[in-house]
Amino acid sequence: MQTTYIETQQISFQDFKNQILEDYRLGRISREMSYLGRREVLTGKAKFGIFGDGKELPQLAMAKVFRNGDFRSGYYRDQTFALAVDALTVESFFAQLYADTSVEREPASAGRQMNGHFATRSLNEDGSWKDLTAQKNISSDISPTAGQMPRLLGLAQASKIYKSVKFDGSEKFSNEGNEIAFGTIGDASTAEGHFWETLNAACALQVPMIVSIWDDGYGISVPTKNQRAKADIAEMLSGFQRKEGENQGCEIIQVKAWDYPALLDAYARAEQFARVESVPVVVHVIEVTQPQGHSTSGSHERYKNEERLSWESQFDGLVKFREWVLNYSIEIEGKEEIIASVEELDAIDDEAKKIVKAGQKNAWENYQKTITDLIQSVLPLVENLKGQNTEIENYIAQFNKLVSKAKKDIFHLTRKALLATRGTSSTERTQLMQKYSEVFEVEKDNYSSHLYSQSQWKAENVKEIKPVYSDSSEDVDGRVVVRNNFDKIFEKYPETLVFGEDAGNIGDVNQGLEGMQEKYGEVRVADTGIREATILGQGIGMAMRGLRPIAEIQYLDYILYCLQGMSDDLATVQYRTKGGQKAPVIIRTRGHRLEGVWHSGSPMAGILNLSKGILVLVPRNLTKAAGFYNTMLQSDDPAVIVECLNGYRLKEKQPDNLGDFTVPVGKIEVTKEGKDVTLVTYGSTWRIVMDAADELEKLGISAEVIDVQSLIPFDLTNEIAESVKRTNRLVVIDEDVEGGTSAFILQQILEKQKAFRYLDSDPLTIAANDHRPAYASDGDYFSKPSSDDMVEKIYAMFNETNPQKYPAIF
């Protein structure tokens, strides 16, 4: 059991004094970073700045109760906290401001995120987990306001789960579940639904979570009174306050941002509630100042009156902290003791400026050296081409006139030189081409790597194990296959858990988890409230802490509630940390063709386009779905698996090797061979396509049917192009809207796989109507492609080619 701040505060006056002065020093360093950071932006050396000035004291207090193994999920103003827990240095702060792409110099994001977005590295270079209990952890920040909140819930709930769940290696993720998840949010962002959904769920689940609300009275320029029903968020949250004897609700603590002793007391009490009692806590930090306004994009003098600006100057946290230090005295053994004199604090102020300036100087020089080295390696090779085209000398002159040079300028010069010398052959041009290829690969890694896992555990590396059948293999409902496969999964992987609406007690609405809660308990198979955004957030946070969560979203239509978190958070985790963090959560959902506007939508194009970074798997039946679960639990990629909603009661032969067989990602399956046309589809539509193919056979058209199975990644071995090469015709059949997923599939086949070379007819897409599907079987028939639609449209292709052999139907 870890000790708390309250339990460790029996210290000598000298230690007390040293702690105070160290806090003052860190506060001053952080403030000088904000001041100098703004100047660096306004003088053109950086593109944008957003800083944490004004929030130094509460963050110093929060850092005192933040222990090894704890996690933070915050937003872009927590630089003082990051400094205090050794997750940030002055140099790395400025390296991020300049967008330095070095992981060593800017470990949070390798220059991929704007300044103020902090992260610690959870992974070793090979993608394996570090010992997270031996370090203080910051889950990678995102900019969307309140977007960090759902993930916070999962980070906190993981501690509660680790109190009862153990597996080989779990000691690297938790010390008996004694960790706290700390969240930070700006006051105005509490108007977002994600804040309320997260706090509501935390109060119901009773997880060890501390949420700090930095309340400076504004949301950029909009006053708090215009943000919510009550200006005072603590008052508004009063109904959440837990009652004695009840295992619901949270503790609410309000404290002033400039009152150092009160802040220490507030966070000490918050830690006690969260770490010892596993109670969520809201710390509402009021009277926060923002000395430099919201960001470098504007000035707060435009919307704050003189009275407010004067108050902020007087109640600046560091000003009040300095006053408190100078006014502090205590008599010990007859002698008056003070913390520091004016001269001592002035010396700390001067030292802080020097430390920050030195750190900024080093960061700038390191960043500039990267560019200088690139120039020195490329420019001489460009100059060698001057004699081959007169324009090149002009390009070089224009380049040399640039006051500030960036990588893009060097690449622009190189590409212009290669364009100008196209069609020529020389040693000099070959040397420039080779150098260009070399440096381009480096920058490709700097700016485009790690969208998906690059480790040995990436999904593409999971070997295919085919289902095994025998004479004793039974024909069962599809839901039985997936249910019995889950049974094997929970037995095989103790770190795996599933949660969602109706997932526990009744075994999900389609009985795919029937009996699993009774067998494996309420921790591993759990019901949730109706709150899709935080179901996803639970999954992200748990996965960041080494668990293998399956977050169930009851219907595909409802995944729209999750798209913000999928797109802005989950899909970008590996990318925005350049492989420093991962969250291999599996999103389980069900959808496609059934009945009604809200239960048979197919928003696949939205998922595909908004969630690059997440695998999108679309099995045609429940056996294939089970195989994908088995695959993904061996992988460290996140994925969404869409089960066929109309397949749970259809009979399938149950494999004998449940829990072991796998379906490879990025691998298509030819389910019917043919020689005249290639039909490409996925999911529930596959069954209808197979029916249509049988009808086409009767009309003299031999159709090859391909089940895509995996939209992301898509047909990694270009097998569809090989099919088109044989048939010379292509039809993509989809239940998404026109120009949706069918357009994506067509682009992959025609452009990436170059299958256009083999076509004798225009490619055809058959998609659903643009409206949502109407209710009942007739609604499905008239809203989405029917077998009749497919047969008629594919037949028309052949009628156009040979009207005598295939006379018109209409």
Describe the protein's topology.
Layout: H1 13-42, H2 56-64, E1 71-73, H3 79-84, H4 90-98, E2 137-138, H5 149-162, E3 181-186, H6 193-205, E4 209-214, E5 218-219, E6 222-223, H7 233-236, E7 251-256, H8 260-277, E8 281-286, H9 306-314, H10 317-327, E9 329-332, E10 335-338, H11 342-383, H12 390-401, H13 407-420, H14 427-448, E11 475-477, H15 478-492, E12 496-500, H16 516-520, E13 525-527, H17 532-544, E14 548-553, H18 563-568, H19 573-576, E15 586-591, H20 604-610, E16 615-617, H21 622-632, E17 639-644, E18 651-653, E19 669-672, E20 677-681, H22 685-698, E21 703-707, E22 710-712, H23 719-727, E23 730-737, H24 741-752, E24 764-768, H25 776-783, H26 787-801
Parallel strand pairs: 1-2, 1-3, 3-4, 4-8, 7-8, 12-13, 12-14, 14-15, 15-17, 16-17, 20-21, 20-23, 23-24
Antiparallel strand pairs: 5-6, 9-10, 11-18, 16-22, 19-21
Helix pairs in contact: 1-4, 1-10, 1-11, 2-8, 4-11, 5-6, 5-17, 11-13, 11-14, 12-13, 13-14, 15-21, 22-26
Pfam families: E1_dh, Transket_pyr, Transketolase_C
Protein name: Transketolase
Keywords: Oxidoreductase, Thiamine pyrophosphate
